[in-house]
C-alpha cells in the first residue's frame, strides 16, 4: 500500500504529523510512505526513518514547479492521498495526485474541502490538541488508536550522529534552551536571566540552540546555526531538560519524551502543548495576560529544579 502525505510545513506541525503517521507505519505491514514537504524541512523526515520518498515543495517556485510536482505525484499511483495541511494549494495537489482515495482535513480552509473527502473534526474552534485532530486519519485505515503517547525514536539519525564534532561534555547533564520563535509575541524575553540562575546553581551544562547566534548568553555553549535539522533529534534526546517557547523544539522534545518546560503566552497549551496532556516530565508555564513577559524567571527556574531533581 502506497500512501502520500501532503504536509509541507510548519516544522512543529510536521513533527505532530510524524507522531500520527508512525502509528500507521507500525500497524500496516508493507506500507510505503511518501511525503510532500517544504524545501529546507526535509531533514526531520530523513531522521525519522519512516518516510520512503520525499518530494520537495518549493514555495515561491511558481506555477511551473508546482505543475511538475503534481505530475510526479500523479505518476506514483497512490492508494491513499492525505492532505493534512488543509489549504487550497495542498488540496489541489492532493486532487492532482489522483489517488484511489483522497482524504483531507474537515477543518480545511480556503475551500480545500471541495477537493477531498473530509475526515476529522470540522469545527476549528473546538478545543482539541493538534495531534488529536489528525488521529481520525489513522482510523480510516482500520487502525485503532490505543492509549499510546505516540513517541518518535529517530533511529536513523542516532546511527549517523553529526554532533560528534561539537565535542559536547559527556560528564555533565545537558540543559538545552531554545530562545527563538518565528513569531515575536511567542518569545519569552527572560532566557538570559534564566541561564544566569542555572549557571549559578551549577545544575548542568547549558546549551543554547536555534538559528540566530548573538552575544547575549554567557557561561553557555552556543550551538545556534551549528546543528542540522537531521541531527536536532539526537541533541534533544540527549538533553536532561529542554526549555522552549511554543515552537518546534518543544514538540520535538515531547515526541522523544525528554523532560521539558514549555513557555506559553498568546497560544493555548491545550491545543499546541506537549502531548499527551499532563505528562509528569513536562511543565507548562502560561502567562495569564497572554504576554510572555508575564512568566517569571523564578517560576521557570523552580520548574527546572523540579524536573532535574533539585528543589529550590
Can you describe what's shown?
By secondary structure, the chain is of the alpha/beta class. The chain has two domains: 2-139, Rossmann fold (3-Layer(aba) Sandwich), CATH 3.40.50; 159-307, Glycogen Phosphorylase B (Rossmann fold, 3-Layer(aba) Sandwich), CATH 3.40.50. The chain has helices spanning 11-27, 42-48, 62-74, 88-97, 135-139, 155-158, 191-201, 232-238, 248-256, 269-272, 297-307, and strands spanning 2-6, 32-38, 53-57, 80-83, 101-105, 117-119, 174-178, 205-208, 221-222, 241-245, 260-264, 282-286. Strands 3-2-1-4-5-6 form a six-stranded parallel beta sheet, with helices on both faces. Helix 4 (88-97) links the parallel strand 4 (80-83) and strand 5. Helix 3 (62-74) packs parallel to helix 4 and helix 7 (191-201) packs across helix 11. The chain is globular, with a radius of gyration of 20 Å.
Written as H for each helix and E for each strand, in order along the chain, the element string is: EHEHEHEHEEHHEHEEHEHEHEH
Tally of helical segments: 11
| Unreliable sequence segments | none
The end-to-end span amounts to: 54 Å
Which class best fits the helix and strand makeup? alpha/beta
Number of DSSP E strands = 12
Oligomer: single chain
- Say which CATH homologous superfamily of the largest domain is assigned: Glycogen Phosphorylase B
Mean pLDDT: 93
Widest β-sheet, arrangement of strands = 3-2-1-4-5-6
CATH structural fold name of the largest domain: Rossmann fold
Q: How does the major sheet shape up?
A: 6 strands, parallel
